[in-house]
């Protein structure tokens, strides 16, 4: 417990600090509501215009609508770019302070990056649940609302998977942070990385709606565990052995990315020069 205390404190302090930005949370919620409504209308139009294709779809309209609202609510849990604090520390040279702290630099950055993502996602998700999960049914728009999980098992698996998604996203974000530390800028990494996150995490389109021949590869790749697997567990798309396989993939990719990240950190720090005084 004593060894974990500095990292718990680092997570808590960063989380509480980021919660102060209430205007940013409200603005992000409004933006995600707008895009969520557009996506919901697109799916509704598609299912209505092509009933034959809709009947053969692996995901029903109700599941797709719930998936969309949840994807918008948890958007900030996907690692879209480098942690701004780490990027600034590398540019200014204050990264030297982190190297001098009596803690493991990798885990310090890992928990701070995780707190940064969770603190941005939590208020937006709460507001989205109130708007799409509670307000829409009260207004008589239940068909367009964020629905409940299929059963208690799906709810429990979703909670476990969501926690694993946070650890996986933090591990992936660490790789982006290390690219920034090596290149001294976050522009290139973010430009190349964002399209991968949008397409392969299920944010642009639920991975279940891609062609059948791509399903295995899409489920196996690491980005699926950041958003698609938890949401498919919630709506009942992954059940039985497939549900456990999804959780196992999240654990596997988290461990792999942590190992790769630790090795990359050692390499980057041995070549990092801090100038100034």
Task: Please describe the structure with a list of short key phrases separated by commas or semicolons.
277 residues; mainly alpha
Number of helices: 12
What is the distance, rounded to the nearest whole angstrom, between the alpha carbons of the first and last residues?
36 Å
- Secondary structure tally: strands: 0
In the residues, how many domains can be counted? 1
- On the 0 to 100 scale, the average pLDDT is 88
Taking pLDDT < 50 over at least 5 consecutive residues as the criterion, the unreliable ranges are none
Helix content: over 70%
Described by strand count, sense and barrel closure, the largest sheet is: none
Secondary-structure element sequence? HHHHHHHHHHHH
Class per helix and strand makeup: mainly alpha
Could you tell me the radius of gyration in angstroms?
Answer: 20 Å
């Amino acid at each position: 417990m004593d060894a974990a205390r500095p990292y718990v404190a680092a997570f808590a302090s960063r989380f509480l600090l980021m919660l102060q930005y209430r205007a940013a949370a409200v603005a992000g919620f409004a933006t995600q509501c707008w895009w969520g409504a557009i996506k919901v209308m697109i799916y509704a139009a598609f299912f209505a215009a092509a009933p034959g294709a809709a009947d053969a779809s692996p995901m029903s309209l109700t599941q797709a609508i719930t998936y969309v609202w949840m994807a918008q609510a948890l958007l900030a849990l996907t690692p879209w770019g480098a942690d701004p604090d780490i990027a600034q520390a590398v540019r200014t040279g204050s990264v030297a302070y982190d190297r001098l702290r009596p803690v493991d630099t990798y885990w310090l950055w890992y928990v701070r990056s995780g707190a940064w993502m969770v603190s941005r996602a939590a208020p937006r998700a709460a507001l989205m649940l109130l708007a799409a999960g509670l307000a829409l049914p009260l207004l008589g728009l239940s068909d367009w609302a964020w629905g409940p999980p299929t059963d208690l098992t799906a709810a429990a698996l979703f909670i476990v998977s969501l926690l694993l998604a946070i650890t996986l996203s933090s591990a992936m974000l660490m790789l982006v942070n290390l690219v920034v530390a090596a290149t001294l800028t976050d522009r290139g990494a973010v430009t190349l990385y964002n399209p991968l996150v949008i397409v392969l995490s299920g944010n642009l389109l639920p991975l279940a709606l891609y062609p059948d021949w791509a399903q295995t590869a899409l489920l196996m790749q690491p980005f699926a565990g950041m958003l698609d697997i938890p949401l498919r567990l919630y709506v009942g798309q992954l059940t039985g052995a497939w549900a456990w396989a999804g959780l196992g993939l999240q654990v596997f990719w988290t461990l792999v990315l942590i190992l790769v990240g630790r090795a990359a950190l050692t390499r980057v720090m041995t070549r990092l020069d801090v100038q100034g005084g």
